[in-house]
Amino acid sequence: MQTDLSVQCVSKTFGDFTAVDNVSFEVPQGEFFSILGPSGCGKTTLLRMIAGFTAPSRGKILIREEDMAGVPPNRRPANLIFQHLALFPMMTVAQNIAFGLQRRREKRSDIQQKITRILERVDLPGFEDKAIDQLSGGQKQRVAIARCLVLEPAVLLLDEPLGALDLKLREQMKVELKKLQAQVGTTFVYITHDQSEALVMSDHVAVMNQGHFEQVDTPQNLYHQPQTSFVSRFVGDNNAWSGVVKRCEAETVDIETPSGQHFRTRATAPLTPGTAVDLFLRPEAMIIQPAADLPNLNRFEVIVKSLLFDGANSRLLANPLNDDTELLIALPQNRQFDHIRRDDRIEVAWDEQSGICFASSE
Prior knowledge:
Elements lengths: L2 E12 L2 E12 L3 E5 L6 H9 L6 E6 L2 E2 L10 E4 L11 H11 L4 H14 L15 H13 L5 E5 L7 H18 L2 E6 L2 H7 L2 E6 L2 E6 L1 H6 L4 H6 L4 E11 L2 E5 L5 E6 L8 E6 L5 E2 L8 E12 L6 E6 L6 E4 L14 E7 L4 E4 L3
Parallel strand pairs: 3-8, 3-9, 6-7, 7-8, 13-20
Antiparallel strand pairs: 1-2, 1-4, 4-5, 9-10, 11-12, 11-14, 12-13, 14-20, 15-19, 16-17, 16-19, 17-18
Helix pairs in contact: 2-3, 2-4, 3-4
């Protein structure tokens, strides 16, 4: 399969500050690739280097095997969509889409045909004469994408394009963007700080932290098999404990928390007794009032502090006995727990293979 984008050992420094630190990755043709990270991690700087607005301090960027060194943004087979879209409000939909084609001095008849085709591909047929202020937020997103796709880029770069939308529309557009990308087949490179956007839409996700990639993987592996403590904290909701390793056995360890709780769990790397560790556990891995005969469980009691009702995503907020650690416990939909109230004392448990621990980074 052809590689549309290859980033090789790219770094960017501003004086003594390193914004992007020796980043390498490849994006195959037709893939939806996301770069996920907190504000200030370097993801926008990396995207601007790919687009050609910023030159790397070191490393190479290749688009369809052509080195982009010295190639200006308007000459690159890549287009960038910003969060605020930058549509021209005084122009119609067709005029916005035609802008880049006119700058290329293409024939008027060819431009009209391309506008008609691209509007059909983004599910906006017949919108040529609409004014921009007549469009919904989602329709504006699709016009911005159409304006880029009509230029037939090898790679479409998207800089947090859903950030300005309200929550409901953002949820809808996540699905729309994924369907649109699959339909048009163009390679998307998408940056976001929203883990849900990255997990829902992407074929692969790079988790970025302080200028480097912590892990590049499928959304499923990032969620279920995080390779670092940062990825565990950043991707998805997690309960977290600090502790010390007391005993090691094969790929499992026994740890003790500062409050005296003892847990057995899996480790991502060999650990030795006395090592300080961080333990992570997903809220949905917690079993409420487990059956007495279930094996290999870490069992303990908690005090319920609050019921966080959110339909299918409802959870309990609780504290272990004699411990102020806040725990999120998912309420499963196939069992009823309507009897649970604030200040109730209940038993919870989790399978030793559900948790994961790393040597503490602090």
